[in-house]
Amino acid sequence: MDTWMRFMSNDGGVVFGRVEGGYLHEYESLEQPVPTGAVLSTRALTPLAPCAPGKVVALWNNFHALAAKLDKPVPSHPLFLLKPASSVIGAGEPIRRPAGYAGKIVYEGELGIVIGRRCRNASIEEAAQAIFGYTLVNDVTAADLLNENPHFPQWCRAKGFDTFCCIGPAIVSGFAWQKAHLTTTLDGVERQNYPLADMVFSPAEQVSLISQDLTLEPGDMIACGTSVGVGSIKDGATVTVAIEGIGRLSNTLSAAGAVTAGAAAAAEASAV
């Protein structure tokens, strides 16, 4: 397995590469994983979200256990929504409560699939080859907005606010997801612990089927959906999503308007 990360350098540039022993072995990009020959100490770099997706495809009802709990039929095709690129933040960055919204904010710990090559109408085999690696996701939702309008469920609005897609801390290629478990803790208390093997659609199946509907580009991400144990976050609480072999993704919910200078700089760099 290889671990890949993005960082902001001291001059404000963004570097990407394979991390080993506290050093970043720089590569051209995720789309062009060609080594530049540069080796940088990670101690001199600021971590960013490990990729800058043009879009995030977020699945719903993709775990048998949650489908059974909600008494929902297992879908025959992935059910998904899109989260905007502007919603993406990395590990350690604050989740910001939307201005004027005092309602429930919900966490969902998920596995993320990072696309490594352009993918359209892909077979299962082609889809598997298009997966660059895997990361961790906290798919955040302003739950009270979802059904605020009885005539139109607002999935994209409720899940699309800035900072509502936490990903990281790294992308791991060659990860054997089949035997892994995902855990989510809220202020250190375990809230989710489920096997990834319970997915309705495997990662390759997700990529293949979704590519029938829309083109997946390098750096795009699929959030594989969550299982039982979803809950709400209070202001100041920290959510940590973890999978052994990938790492730990921690983010804290801040009150509306509480933006740190570091978070603003990281958000600006992630758009590069």
Brief rundown of the structure:
It holds the Pfam family FAA_hydrolase. It contains six helices and 20 strands. With 272 residues, the protein is α+β, with helices and mostly antiparallel strands.
Description:
With 272 residues, the protein is α+β, with helices and mostly antiparallel strands. It has one domain: Fumarylacetoacetate hydrolase, domain 2, CATH 3.90.850.10. The protein is built from six helices and 20 strands. The strands form three sheets. Strands 1, 2, 3, 4, 5, 6, 7, 8, 11, 12, 14 and 17 form a twelve-stranded mixed beta sheet that branches. A hairpin with a 2-residue loop joins strand 2 and strand 3. The protein is globular, with a radius of gyration of 18 Å. The model is unreliable at 259-272 (pLDDT under 50).
Features:
single chain, 272 residues, alpha+beta, Fumarylacetoacetate hydrolase, domain 2, 20 strands, disordered C terminus, isomerase activity, 2-hydroxyhepta-2,4-diene-1,7-dioate isomerase, Fumarylacetoacetase-like_C, metal-binding
Topology summary:
Elements (H helix, E strand, L loop, with lengths): L1 E7 L5 E7 L2 E5 L7 E7 L4 E3 L6 E6 L3 H7 L8 E6 L3 E2 L5 E2 L8 E3 L1 E7 L8 H7 E9 L1 E2 H4 L8 H5 L5 E9 L7 E6 L2 E7 L7 H9 L9 E3 L7 E2 L5 E6 L3 E8 L6 H10 L2
Parallel strand pairs: 6-17, 8-14, 9-20
Antiparallel strand pairs: 1-2, 1-5, 1-14, 2-3, 3-4, 6-7, 10-13, 10-18, 11-12, 11-17, 12-14, 15-16, 15-19, 19-20
Helix pairs in contact: 2-5
